[in-house]
Write a structure and sequence with these properties.
Elements: E1 3-14, E2 17-28, E3 32-36, H1 43-51, E4 58-63, E5 66-67, H2 73-78, E6 81-83, H3 96-107, H4 118-134, H5 150-163, E7 168-172, H6 180-192, E8 198-202, H7 206-212, E9 215-220, E10 223-229, H8 230-235, H9 237-244
Helix pairs in contact: 3-4, 3-5, 4-5
Bound molecules: adenosine-5'-triphosphate.
Residues 14, 17, 19, 37, 39-45 line the site of adenosine-5'-triphosphate (ATP).
């Protein structure tokens, strides 16, 4: 099978600090792939390289069989990649509905024009409502975002990424800072995402993350230490030594 995402020899340094070291990674269609590693291992940097927020110094990124190494972030999104960020990056004064509509517009070529016809607008509004319903926020559509809880914002972020109908979704610590109840809501939400969408996730909550993952890659000092099935990586002594044991 062809991988949906393939990284070959990817490297990145910030000044003298080498944070990504010759990373090779293959992710197959529909896979739930977990990136683990101690703080500072370079996980978020790898997401930034994949999404195009940072430019790699060397190596190659192939998305759905296409070389996207030199493409800007927006083009990668057009080619099927969506991500959420570790820090909530939404428009606080705007309603939940408008936030989702902005995400929908981000995917649409209409973005750079004015609104199209009234029926276009109706379709867009209906889709935004459907996306909010899917993450259990339908009843809050008209509320300004700043009146929602942190957990709801994190759910909205996932909704906005899904609204773009990605083929590959990057989730950066979707459970960070959430209560046990909110974590459970996100866990269920993640479990409901269509298997056609490939997901790569960074997450430190091992209980949820391990239940979710098919395959795991362990990073340390920017380098892939090992990758394999969940069982292979969990049972490897290096995982305990470098990550789980700390
Ligand atoms: N824009 C930047 N400029 C300089 N150094 C950076 C930049 N972004 C990340 N780094 C450094 O790169 C290293 C890896 O950081 P990164 O955030 O990728 O790690 P991480 O594995 O995601 O960590 P965490 O689990 O704490 O989120 C760190 O030493 C960090 O300080």
């Amino acid at each position: 099978m062809n991988p949906v995402l393939e990284l070959s020899g990817l490297s990145k340094a910030f000044g003298g600090l080498q944070v990504t070291r010759g990373v090779d990674l293959r992710v197959e269609q529909g896979e739930r792939h977990l990136l683990i590693g101690p703080n500072g291992a370079g996980k978020t940097t790898l997401f930034n390289l994949i999404a195009g927020d940072f430019r790699s110094d060397s190596g190659r990124i192939s998305l759905l069989g296409r070389d996207v190494t030199r493409l800007p972030t927006a083009s990668r999104a057009q080619h099927g990649l969506a991500r959420t960020y570790q820090i909530v990056t939404l428009f606080g004064k705007d309603t939940l509905l408008h936030n989702v509509m902005l995400a929908l517009l981000g995917k649409s070529p209409r973005r750079w024009r004015h609104w199209g016809s009234l029926s276009d607008e109706r379709t867009m509004t209906a889709r935004a409502h459907a996306v909010l319903e899917a993450v259990g926020l339908g009843h809050k559509a008209a509320l300004p975002l700043q009146q929602t809880s942190y957990g709801e914002k994190r759910r909205l972020e996932i909704a906005m990424a899904l609204a773009q109908e990605p083929q590959v979704l990057l989730l950066d610590e979707p459970l960070a800072g959430l209560s046990a109840e909110e974590r459970d809501t996100i866990r269920q939400l993640l479990g409901q995402i269509d298997r056609k969408i490939t997901i790569i996730m960074i997450e430190h909550d091992m209980e949820v993350a391990l239940a979710f993952a098919d395959r795991i890659t362990l990073l340390h000092y920017g380098e892939v230490i090992l990758g394999g099935t969940r069982e292979q990586v969990v049972n490897d002594p290096r995982t305990r030594e470098i990550y789980l044991g700390h």
